Amino acid sequence: MTMTMPITGQAGLERVRFFPGQILTADDMSLSTEWVLEKLRRHNRYLHGWGIVCGCDVKPPGGTDSAWTVHICPGYLITPQGDEVLIASEAKFDLAGCILSSADPCATARPCPPITRRPAGTTQKVYLAVRYVECDARPVRIAPAGCSCGDGQCDYSRVREAYEFCCLDSLPPVPPPYGCDHLCHGDVLACPDCPPERWVVLATVTLPSSVDTTLIVDNISPADRRLLYSAAMLREMAICNCGPQPAPQPPAPQPPMQTVEPPVIEPPTGIYAAAITVTITDATPQAQIYYTTSGDDPTPGGPTTNLYGAPFPLWTQFASTVTVKAKATKANFNDSPIRSVDYTFTGVIQ
Length: 350
Fold this sequence. Notes:
11% of the residues lie in helices and 32% in strands. A five-stranded mixed sheet has the order 8-10-9-11-12, with no helix packed on it. A five-stranded mixed sheet has the order 14-20-19-16-17, with no helix packed on it. The longest helix is centred in the N-terminal third of the chain and has 23 residues, at 26-48. The radius of gyration is 45 Å and the shape is elongated. It is mainly β. The protein is built from three helices and 20 strands. It has two domains: 26-144 and 151-242, no CATH class; 264-345, Immunoglobulin-like (Sandwich).
């Protein structure tokens, strides 16, 4: 099966439209498969990017391994083209001759000349990389055409998704980053082109000057690995940067508010034949006193309510009773109870 590579500026993909009576060919069925794969590749490339998601560690030789055999641990990654690679089991890779040993049937090694072909006594830096490949599998016989009774030819009935390792002399080109300024300022970001290189670097290996010198941990560096963080990783990274958010707690119980002391109105209730001066006091410091002489309950801002500031005179020209009501208030306190006093005047004041 031919892999269709995305084209810069491509308007869209094409899929088969099925209808009754349609004659389907192998190309039609293959196109449907390629459409799904290309959608997935484009989704991975634009939405997630590419790089090593987890695992894929490279370790030095051990036990009976040859001096330049490294161990490639299981892991998962996305290639620059958007293909996924799952290294299902540990692989051994001999850097001296690109010889691979793995229990995973999908693991392959790219043929390459021995790395030992270099000037004697010099060190060399190589980049151990992996890429996605496809290989044909499960051969079956093809039914003969017409009425022929002869044996039919064979063709492969499956496409196996695989991967291969290789040693590169130089790092594959990497597209430039967007940059913090463009990302943080909300600039219009260009869609990245599909990189021509399919390799994903697993480790940078500095080879000793002699093929008989065994590789050690210091010869293997992950510095050139490109990491791709999953959504779960990004969530944990955000928590690490911002600190874990405490669970919501119920509000602490508030202590009961105090109540303003009731005001005291002087003089007391009684019958008076002359004008009087009314004084209102309150024992709560900084309390404000509101009063009325209309018999209404005092309400701050009400039409008949006055803010007490100083003693005030009170009288009536005719015999009648005047009711003075007062209430004290203070911020963060409950209002005081209303107190009232009745003054009965006997007649015209001379």
